[in-house]
Design a protein that fits this description.
single chain; alpha/beta; Rossmann fold; 2 domains; seven-stranded mixed beta sheet; 10 helices; 7 strands; about 20% strand; globular
Length: about 220
């Protein structure tokens, strides 16, 4: 099939879509195939080319986290799911907070022993964003990918270790701009990662906030 497409493209140069199909869909080394983008559509969940689960975040930040996460790190995650399993295979422990009762029941059946799954109904600047403060644990990484994200960004700081980092997904949203500026005013530096998510259609951004001597060696 590949040879046939190439022959057609040479004879009919005014059909660039055929070259696009070959470049992005058929070529095994293409971005859409090597990242697992096409495989995610096939399997119905975010996964890599081998079918292993991925967070529903853009591929550049996933690649960054794959390289930097290690078994010394503990994570608190606002928003549970496939990402919880992804982190659990790479870090010491994950505490994940879910607000959807149906999803909570479904997710808890798939989690390994190094995950603590919590449930709290969502609200605005109330109990949900403050669940992280219910114990004295200091987390090396806090992932904000659930509800009430602006308030989570503020309330999580008391539970962030001195070497800790914060990861905010969908950070391109205008409603998060004030909270992002607030973290920068508190001394955090930031790195934006932009790209496609598994099964995504638009450019998405995730932002990592960090300080000097952080757990990801940024």
């Amino acid at each position: 099939m590949l040879k046939s497409l190439k022959k057609i493209a040479k004879k009919v140069p005014f059909v660039p879509s055929l070259l696009t199909i070959n470049t992005l869909l058929i070529n095994k080394k293409s971005y859409l195939r090597s990242t697992g983008y096409l495989n995610s559509f096939k399997n119905g969940y975010p996964c890599d080319e081998k079918g292993e689960v991925l967070p529903w975040m853009n591929y550049p930040v996933i690649a960054f986290l794959k390289e930097r996460l290690n078994k010394e790190i503990t994570i608190f995650e606002y928003g549970s799911g496939f990402s919880t399993r992804f982190y659990a295979t790479r870090v010491k422990h994950v505490t994940s907070l879910e607000y959807n009762s149906f999803w909570y029941e479904k997710v808890k059946q798939t989690l390994p022993d190094n995950v603590t799954l919590l449930f709290q109904e969502t609200d605005i600047n109330g109990k949900y964003c403050r669940v992280i403060q219910q114990n004295d644990v200091k987390y090396e990484m806090i992932v904000i990918d659930g509800d009430d994200r602006e308030n989570c960004m503020q309330q999580c700081l008391v539970s962030l270790s001195k070497t800790g980092v914060i990861v905010l997904d969908d950070s391109q949203r205008e409603s998060y701009a004030k909270s992002i500026s607030s973290l920068e005013n508190k001394g955090f530096k930031r790195i934006h990662f932009e790209g496609l998510k598994p099964k995504g259609k638009i450019m998405d951004r995730s932002t990592v906030f960090y300080r000097d001597n952080n757990c990801l060696d940024i």
